[in-house]
Amino acid sequence: MTMTFDFSGKNVFVVGGTSGINYGIAQGFARWGAKLMVASRKQDKVDEAVAGLKELGAQTGGTAFDVRDYAAVEAGFEETAKFFGGPIDILVSGAAGNVPGRLMDLSPNAVKAMVEIDLMGTFHVMRACYAHLAKPGASVINISAPQAFNAMSHQSPVCAAKAGVDMVTKSLALEWGPEGIRVNSISPGPIDGTEGMARLAPTPQIREAVTKSVPTKRMGTTDDIAKAAGFLSSDAADYVSGVVLPVDGGWGVSGASVVMTHAAGFMDKLKGG
After folding, report:
1. What is d(CA 144, CA 76) in angstroms, rounded to the nearest whole number?
2. Which residue of 27, 111, 239, 266 lies most exposed, with the fewest beta carbons within 10 A?
3. What is the pTM of this model?
4. Torsion angle (degrees, nearest 10) of CA 53, 55, 60, 63
5. Domains contained in the chain, CATH given
6. Which is it for the CA torsion 94, 100, 104, 106, positive or negative?
7. Phi, psi of 178 (to 5 degrees)
8. Number of Cβ atoms within 10 Å of the Cβ of 83
9. What confidence tens digit (pLDDT) does each residue in 119-152 have?
10. Which of 256, 19, 22 is closest to 142 using CA atoms?
11. Sheet with 182-188, edge to edge strand ranges
């Protein structure tokens, strides 16, 4: 079944929207008629994503900033406001970093980087976006992960950071709700063809085990996540806020922690750990 929405006349900003899941979300909104801005850390990736989204017929711009740098994030939102010429109707905050490893094998700087990108980056984007959101009517979506509610070996910094992201979502749903702003999270399961999945399932054996562990017996696609973002931003969800929506084929309730623990052990053996 092909799901379509009409977001013509809407301004959509996807932070992290130059690759993987977030680019898939941007592609969805491009097909659905939105005016788009995308952002990520590297200008060349921004330029490539903008070109691809324009090929889908979307009026698209881009800006480069590091979500760890609040002043740069603020400047990016000012640039975005000029491009749109009006408020942001839909904001997707999806910048993320993940280096799988046992805590004692990770340097303090590696841990700090993951927490700063995932959690502090979310705080920065949320704080900087507020002045530019449509009030009432804005839909804000944070991209979470199954690690937020499923403890996983070799994932402690990301588990902690993504759990924090979900609580930011719920807290801001309370704070911003009276102004007509809805805030939700999407928690993607194993999504095929993404850098994150390649890191978590780097071998055919692990990939097969992960696929079998999903109740629907398939990995998801970036389009699956785009459709969820479209729903949460549509009139069909105008009474939905403060929700963490798993889009994972049931993976989060079927043993995601167990299979990823086995996968981590297998990776350790490959590394000689």
Report:
1. 22
2. 239
3. 0.91
4. 60
5. 11-191+221-251 (3.40.50.720)
6. negative
7. -60, -20
8. 18
9. 999 999 999 999 999 999 999 999 999 989 888 8
10. 22
11. 60-64, 35-40, 11-15, 90-93, 139-143, 182-188, 244-247
